[in-house]
Amino acid sequence: MTERPLEKHTQLWVGPQHPGITGNMSVQIWVQGDTIQLGRTHVGYLHRGFEKLVERRKFIQAFPIVCRICVPEPDTNEYLLTAGLEELAGIEIPERAKWLRTLVLELARLAATVQALGGQAGTLGLGVVPNWTYTLRDYILDRFEELSGGRVYHMYIIYGGVRRDIPEGFFERLEGTLKTIEERLPALDNLIFDNAVFQKRTQGVGIVKPEWIDEMGISGPTARGCGRPIDIRRVDPYLVYPALDFDVITADGCDIWSRTLVRRGDIEQSIKIIRQIMRQIPDGPFCARLPNMLHWKIPTGQTYLRAEASRGEMGYYMVTDGSDKLRRMHVRGPSYVHGFSLLERMLPGLNIADLSATMVSMQTCPPEMER
Amino acid sequence: MKTHIETLKRHQFEVLWTHQQRANLIQIGIKAEQTLPVLTYLKTHTPFVQLTHYSAVDWIEDNEFQLTYTLTNPQTYEILMVCARIDREAATADSLHKLWPQAVTYEHEMGEMFGLKFPGSPRVGEPFNLEGWRDMPPMRRDFDTVKFVRDSIPERPGRQAINTRDYIGAEAGEKRLLHD
């Protein structure tokens, strides 16, 4: 395909307010007939200057800011902020806190993956599926509310560990939620994967070439849908993931179908991980003793820390300068790669009707792209 | 990973400093003029083929910008962080878009947020997040966010404001807590 659109073309803007667009972003496309010739991603509709705001606030005040970088899965941001600053400050967290953090991260991955599965079906007109999956996500949010007081933004992971220990009977209720999700999975499979429309619209559509993975830094289900077992939990393990038994799900079609299959497999793996945590979590303190948060200063240093979000590798680059505020924070979410360079490369040749499904299959998340 | 740094030195690249942040993360400092040759060498002769992250830090007190290139070895997931400092007034650096296509996005953003120039980079100068922005690049340290808000957002008449600093200070029983 050409770098410039052909002479005879129609220019269209998809978004920023469009049911087929994830969040508020827009894709400018040049089409000839039904075929996209060229596409450009445009962001800025959600820019709230998070990276600038944290430079002007004390470390403890950064919490209500970073969780808003990803609405469906805020906990990865909380974890990376805390773990990065703990590394720079030389703070060790208690063993139980590591298990609780892993539990919360996995619950967040589960909620986001369930939601994404429904979102994918929704882009192809299967409206019932998102209704069901949003309900399942809501059951997980009930557990989050019980644990942290918040449904969407939790701020449960804090410097030194977690904010509080689990309430009494929490694991029994969590087990009930997991069983409810498991019971619904066969029905979801029937609605999604046995559906002829879904099969026809996703198989061989939205191809990601395997050679792009290393070249562009593609990760998560987008890379695993090309047969590459890239999972930060396994390749660069953190918290208690090395002690847990789970499979890295892959598929080799490189298309939307494969990425959806990977997400479907991820749901079962997250449930498996959560059950192991419930069985193996040790007793002990849930938070380390820390200096006064209002006067906490961290020595000069810089680090890059990453974790596996449901969409792929989430990375935080943080620089401290000996003061009580971050000198610089830059968030490299998976959407930063998937939503700009990868999406723009995938658009030429795509049918206009497949734009939404292709974009959602990579779970592009605008707040993460513009921060 | 240390062998690759030694190889860099053997190839006449000047490594100004090295720091092992953690087992799989090493940071090195290089001269700005050697950025492109060093990164080209690392991509073509070592396993650090993936540009995972690329950003800038404003060291206003030194009148310099630091450019940080985070490279990953996709076989071992070791990270090599390459840092180079450039003059803050000139604010010009080599573009990496021919080495890594996704560098275009990072340079596009840094061009807008820090006012950095990357000659040859295809989209620097186009709006990224900020449409019609006429002020100083907002991620520079001397950009005053409070002044910007006061100048650009008019105060609503009759609105009662609580000074957060005084309020939190009074609650915590301390004085001059925030932003001082």
What does it look like?
With 371 residues, chain A is α+β, with helices and mostly antiparallel strands. Chain A has a single domain (10-370), classed as Cytochrome-c3 Hydrogenase, chain B, CATH 1.10.645. Chain A is built from 14 helices and eight strands. Chain A is globular and about 65 Å long. Chain B is α+β, with helices and mostly antiparallel strands and 180 residues long. Chain B has a single domain, classed as Beta Polymerase, domain 2. A five-stranded mixed β-sheet of chain B has the order 1-2-5-4-3, covered by helices on one side. In chain B, strand 3 and strand 4 form a beta hairpin. The model of chain B has no long low-confidence stretch (mean pLDDT 87). The A-B interface holds A 43-44, 47, 49, 51-53, 55-58, 61, 87, 214-217, 230, 232, 235-236, 294, 301-304, 306, 313, 315, 317, 319, 327-328, 330, 332, 336-337, 340-342, 345, 370 and B 21-22, 24-25, 27, 49-53, 55, 57-58, 68, 70, 72, 74, 77, 79, 81, 83, 100-102, 104-105, 127-131, 138-139, 141, 143, 145, 172, 174, 177-179.
CATH topology of chain A: Cytochrome-c3 Hydrogenase, chain B
Task: Indicate the CATH class of chain A.
Answer: Mainly Alpha
| CATH structural architecture of chain A | Orthogonal Bundle
Global Rg of chain B = 21 Å
- Count the E strands of chain A: 8
Query: How many separate helices of chain B?
Result: 5
Number of domains of chain A: 1
Strand content of chain A: 5-15%
State the separation between the terminal residues of chain B, measured CA to CA: 41 Å
Query: Could you state the oligomeric state of the chains shown?
Result: heterodimer
What is the domain tally of chain B? 1
Task: State the CATH superfamily name of chain B.
Answer: NADH:ubiquinone oxidoreductase Nqo5 subunit
CATH superfamily of chain A: Cytochrome-c3 Hydrogenase, chain B
Helix % of chain B is 25-40%
What is the overall pLDDT average of chain A? 90
What is the name of the CATH class of chain B? Alpha Beta
Based on secondary structure, the structural category of chain A is: alpha+beta
Shape of chain B: elongated
What's the main sheet of chain B like? 5 strands, mixed
